[in-house]
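Support reply, case 0932

Customer input (verbatim):
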Amino acid sequence: MTTYWFKPKRYGYGATPLTWQGWAVTLATVLAMVGVTVGLRLTERHGWAPPAIFGFDALAIAVLVIACRRKTNGEWRWRWGDR
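Our regenerated output:
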């Protein structure tokens, strides 16, 4: 049996964490993005940090979205709430 970590949002598009695993994945992604950003900004010497930060953040968000979609109980679509 598959355990779902996220549930579809009631309003809008996407999903929200449902279990501690979902919250852990979301928090780990945010902490990794902040850590890489701070680390690269502190060691920047020749202006290469902003593109590297952008690339890492884009990759981290893409991985998070893929994980969320695979572990969501239901489909991702625009929702207007309970009607």
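We compared this against your earlier run and they match. Two observations from our side: The chain is about 55% helix and 10% strand. The two ends are 30 Å apart (CA to CA). Please reopen the case if you see a mismatch on your end.
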